[in-house]
Amino acid sequence: MLEEMARRGVQLTGTADSGTFQISVPALGTIRGNFQISGKSLAIEILSRPMLIGCGKIESKIQDFILDAKAIIRSGRRGTA
After folding, report:
1. What pTM was estimated for this model as a whole?
2. Are strands 41-48 and 11-14 parallel, antiparallel or unpaired?
3. Using the 8-state DSSP alphabet, how is residue 16 labeled?
4. How far apart are CA 10 and CA 66, in angstroms?
5. Beta carbons within 10 angstroms of residue 34's beta carbon
6. How far is it, in rounded angstroms, from Cα 4 to Cα 25?
């Protein structure tokens, strides 16, 4: 999932297990947060977000990243553009 997020322009820092992320939202600002992965669990903490972007929209986008990453892994396209 982290590879897919980075490929889509999300700025990530840290390790494969934990770190921070920033997602630029044109004309609105930046979403900033922390993530931690433990086994099959993913914890995400949103630290700041533009006022016009609701939590539901952020959650939906993160779920999209997860589903897309799973599809890529299952199809064997991992690491391709």
Report:
1. 0.74
2. unpaired
3. S
4. 14
5. 14
6. 17
pLDDT tens, position by position, 61-81: 888 877 887 888 788 765 544
pLDDT for the residue 25: 86
SS3 assignment, position 43 = strand
71/65 Cα distance (integer angstroms): 10
Q: Is residue 18 over pLDDT 90?
A: yes
- The two tokens of residue 37 are 């992965």
Residue 47 burial (CB < 10 Å; 0-12/13-18/19+)? exposed
Would you state the pLDDT for residue 2?
73
Question: Alpha-carbon distance 51 to 79, whole Å?
Answer: 35
Instruction: Tell me the H-state helices in the chain.
Output: 2-7, 55-75
CA 27/CA 7 separation, integer angstroms: 21
Amino acid identity of residue 17, one-letter, is: D
